[in-house]
Specification:
The protein is an alpha/beta fold. The protein has 7 helices and 12 strands. It has a 10-stranded mixed sheet, sandwiched between helices.
Length: 265
């Protein structure tokens, strides 16, 4: 894991989130790309283009953020970019060869009832790219010891789909428990674990629930993980909850980081 991307907004949690990102990047000896994306507006009724003003303000904001954290020995690159969030982040991921995206639950929302805000939910649901990790607000970095990986299908067709999980396993020597959840949509072969995944996990268990999410809730306490790992699918773990991008805490919340892998098929 060499390059980590951190998109930032204006939430009160941003400083804490950036410090976690630096500490996480330091553990891997990775470079950190901190990006603030702004939209371009032209003031109605005038010929004034606000592009250069917004860019300057965005750069100043990034510099102020970085000045408030301990960057340690981590190389931090800041970029103020204009455009749509998802498209711009996808482009950055390709250009900078990003291995992991770290996001906070709410980049801008101040609503305490919200777990994932509009922007964070949009990144998780719509962005095509590397794995994404949701870091809880105020969470302090510490080595990872136990990951609970939940999936309803173990079929893997995409190359390098498990790279971020492998990197965590190698760095922290953590235990990975695989929970296979049999849902009403279960198909023959869904629980056939290939050699790559089998070599990565330490324990495999199965459960039968209406959804993967319910399977996690049922087995969460018995596994006592300090990270949850799920898979982004077109109709997967979070899709229905994220169809409106915003997720309320009453629907889903996590006090530990959530690693969301890209689609495996």
């Amino acid at each position: 894991m060499k390059n980590i991307l951190v998109p930032v907004g204006t939430s009160n949690n941003t400083i804490s989130h950036l410090q976690y990102a630096v500490d996480f990047a330091e553990a891997f000896g990775a470079k950190l790309y901190v990006v603030h994306i702004y939209k371009v507006f032209t003031k109605a009724g005038t010929m004034i283009n606000l592009d250069h003003i917004l860019e300057r303000e965005s750069k100043d904001y990034l510099n102020e953020l970085i000045s408030k954290i301990d960057t340690k020995n981590v190389e931090v690159v800041t970029k103020a970019l204009k455009g749509k969030v998802v498209n711009t982040l996808e482009l950055v991921c390709k250009i900078a060869n990003i291995d992991l995206v770290l996001i906070q639950p709410r980049t801008n929302s101040v609503n305490d009832e919200v777990f994932l805000g509009e922007t964070s939910g949009k990144i998780i649901k719509q962005m095509n790219g590397p794995a994404t990790m949701i870091v809880p607000e105020g969470y302090i970095f510490e080595p990872i010891h136990n990951i609970l990986m939940a999936m309803k299908s173990a079929i893997i067709k995409k190359e390098n789909a498990l790279e971020s999980l492998k990197a965590l396993k190698e760095k922290f020597k953590c235990k990975i428990d695989l929970l296979l959840v049999k849902t009403p949509f279960h198909k023959e072969g869904d629980f056939d674990v290939n050699e790559e995944l089998s070599a990565l996990v330490d324990d495999i268990s199965t459960t039968e629930n209406a959804t993967t999410f319910q399977g996690v809730l049922r087995h969460y306490e018995s596994h006592n993980p300090d990270m949850l790992c799920v898979v982004r699918r077109k109709r997967g773990f979070f899709t229905k909850k994220w169809e409106k991008n915003v997720i309320l805490k009453k629907d889903f919340s996590s006090s530990i980081p959530v690693l969301v892998l890209s689609e495996l098929k």
